[in-house]
Amino acid sequence: MTMSEDLPLQMRSWLFAPGDSEKKMQKAAASAADIAIFDLEDAVATEEKPKARVMVREFLESQPADALHRLWVRVNPLDGPHTLADLAAVMSARPGGIMLPKVYGRPDVERLDHYLSALEAAHGIDQGATRVIVLVTETAAAMFTTGDYAGAPRVVALTWGAEDLADSIGASSNRNADGSYSFTYELARSLCLLGAATAGVAAVETIQGDFRDLEGLKARAEKVRRDGYRGMLAIHPAQVDVINAAFSPNEQEIAEAQEIVDIFAANPGVGAIGYKGGMLDRPYLARAEALLRLAGR
């Protein structure tokens, strides 16, 4: 069983809050987000990082123990000077997980695992209890390693980013004239999805920057869920309910999936079976079973 299959919480919505704002961390923690991520990276200026580390640790320490599993921290990338200081500051407060940005490949995850293992031992935390989500497309090099995370320690989800990738390759824009992502960034989305499927972990869609466009968010979230994504990053509490709804199967979907499962159960050993004027084969059954698992059925 992978860690993602054993995960005791949903991973539909991942809401960022800057680690230097107690008010915003409180809003994120109190929201309906499945996971709140307190950000020590892009949301915090370099000179404010020492203060933010203390604020995140103190905020985590103030929370009930049974809430910590959904309170995560985004640390700074391993190719900079801040990661160890971030981890040393927050791990005593037992965050539920760590988001690792700007990876170059699996060795970064393995290095993080070593750091976390030492800090868990130092603070009396069960080994391996701190889970990890990895941002796998923020550097050009990482695009070539998205399929390398099968069995990677602690990893329960992969997500992707378009803005840092554009910086990494020297692009002036990551959008087409109509506002859609251009080819390289759609490729990043696909590679993240394929990498997550290979690793047996959740694929998590990147942010939508315009938090006021909830209709656009709904359409995009529903589209990527059909593609195989299981959650989405959020930058504003207003986005959370839309994301949660988009990544939760509705009653019609559940009923149809159950009907497909029941048809195959009533006809054991059959490879293909008639259904509503068409034919269903075993991949349809697998998708129906996966949807029912997603719905908690």
TrEMBL record:
UniProt-recorded name of the protein: CoA ester lyase
Domain annotation HpcH/HpaI aldolase/citrate lyase: ranges: 12-237
Entry-linked Pfam families: HpcH_HpaI (PF03328)
Family assignment from sequence similarity: Belongs to the HpcH/HpaI aldolase family.
Binding residues annotated for substrate, in chain numbering: R74, E138
Matching InterPro entries: Aldolase/citrate-lyase_domain, Citrate_lyase_beta/mcl1/mcl2, Pyrv/PenolPyrv_kinase-like_dom, Pyrv_kinase-like_dom_sf
Keyword annotations: Lyase, Magnesium, Metal-binding
Amino acids binding Mg(2+): E138, D164
A biological process from GO: oxaloacetate metabolic process
Cofactor(s) required for function per UniProt: Mg(2+)
Originating organism: Sphingomonas cavernae
Single GO MF annotation: magnesium ion binding
